[in-house]
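Bug #77: duplicate submission created two jobs. Keeping one. Sequence:
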Amino acid sequence: MKAVVAALLVVFCFFVSSDCQLLRAGCRGTANYGPQNNFPVIPGAAQTQVIGTTTNGKAYLVTVPNAGGNTAANFTLLHVYGTPYEMGRAQGELMKEKTQALVTQVWAYMRNQIANALPGYLPTWFSDLIADLGLDAALDFTEAASYAYTPEHFIDELHGLCDGSGADFSTVYKIHMIAGFTQGDCSMFGAWGSAVPVEGSVLQLRALDWNMDGPFRDYSQITVYHPATGFGHAFANVGFTGFIGGLTGVSQTQLGISEIGASYPDASFGEESRIGVPFIFLLRDILQYDFTVDDAINRMVNSRRTCNLILGVGDGKLGEFRGFQYSYSVLNVFDDRNLRPNATWHPKIENVVYWGMDWLCPAYDTVLSNLLLKYHGQLTPEIAIQYVSSVEQSGDNHIAFYDLTKMNLYVSFAAPNGVGGPVAAYARQYTKWDLNALFSETL
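Kept job's structure:
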């Protein structure tokens, strides 16, 4: 994002934004096909090295060679165990320096960018609030607006994170709250049945297109949660150091999540609200507490929703994927037969639900739909990595494919600053993870 406060306010600031100017040109431009990704997928477990342990957690450094040369890159694999507070504290203790550094860098980056971000890169209501009250007061407002809708276990985990790392709780909490008020623009698909070569299997894409100019891509992390009894089940959260919300992930119950912000909605979205459950917490609760896609639907129906989003939930047990048109006043559930929007550039495809970068985005939807049709019936993670996502050119910050039947996670992160090779995650080397092995790992 060129003037990226929206992104900065969305994730620790690590949550969900994108290059608005590029997106505007991309969605409204002509279809553009990129090169294939020919790097071999490598097993993630073979690339790990223990870098720290604590009472309720352990951390690994994962080195991705990116097919050799001087292009190797690292990210963190973190396991945390226990109650919400204990899991947060374990992350804080193990990632103390990184957490403090990222908070400091993000805050400074946000301050530097704020003058260029108004108007045009923030929701109107928030731009006006900053203009009237200043940044700190605007953050105070969002904190107050969201607090009543933030589950207690997230507050407890944030306290643990800050106690373990020494980061300021108020700053960390305020920035997390902004995530529920800002939309990002990414890509997703779910494929099953006739679209995949193995009957009964489900393949899901979650591509995060987001800020590449700031410090975020230096702090990539997979966090594997092992909650204590009474606090849900195990799940893997793909994101950034200190990020406790859900954007990308898979649960022990074979559920996967995807998300896109609707920067180009139509009237069918109805009304938005800025007071309600931050969607990063709703998505994570789906991973941590829900057992089926129907549970996820019930959670969305019964939550006070907020901004315009497109969500996706895959269920490897039921062999299903569902997409959701999500706003304060609307919740529509889509399969391959009722998929919207109805447009020639967004054709219905048997046993596939998909969106490229936005709700009304002809350029990306044209590319993605053509590729999904071309490889229909052959869609495996390896085929999709090599011939679909890289050619669509979506997933610059991080990208993940979930095989929800075999319980394998394929993930790639953007190149950290100063690292050679392709920059965008979709063009870099993927690691493959056995999720059942990750979930069964003990201290």
